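Exercise 7. Given the encoded structure of a 130-residue chain, write a plausible sequence.
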């Protein structure tokens, strides 16, 4: 059974850092673009960052540019989201998701369109206190 498991969330003070992990089991993520999304209470789920299947292309929401960094480890079959300079507005449940990108010329595909991603994890809570 294919699944994604997020970890690394927690409670951190404003200005602090956390590193989220998205581990895949039951399949290899080599041919998938991977995205991080977040959902705060009462708000829509929004895209935070994504990385292409090749690892050579990344995309960030304007709100996190310069503070968050996405990366992937093909050996560990895991994608990471390093979050620095955290703010209370970053408080949300963070989800990772995958999009098949194994077709021709899709190895560089990245985007933050939620409907493009079809396998989702259950999320990890990130809370940033002021």
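Solution.
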């Amino acid at each position: 059974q294919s699944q994604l498991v997020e970890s690394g969330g927690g409670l951190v003070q404003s200005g602090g850092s956390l590193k989220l992990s998205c581990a895949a089991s039951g399949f290899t993520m080599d041919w998938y673009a991977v995205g991080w999304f977040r959902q705060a209470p009462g708000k829509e789920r929004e895209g935070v960052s994504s990385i292409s299947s090749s690892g050579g292309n990344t995309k960030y929401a304007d709100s996190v540019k310069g503070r968050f960094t996405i990366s992937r480890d093909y050996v560990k079959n895991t994608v990471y989201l390093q979050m620095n300079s955290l703010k209370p507005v970053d408080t949300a449940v963070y989800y990772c998701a995958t999009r098949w990108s194994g077709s021709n010329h899709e190895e560089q595909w990245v985007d933050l369109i939620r409907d493009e991603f079809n396998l989702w994890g259950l999320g990890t809570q990130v809370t940033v206190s002021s």
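Remark. The chain has a mean pLDDT of 96. Students should compare their own answers with the one above.
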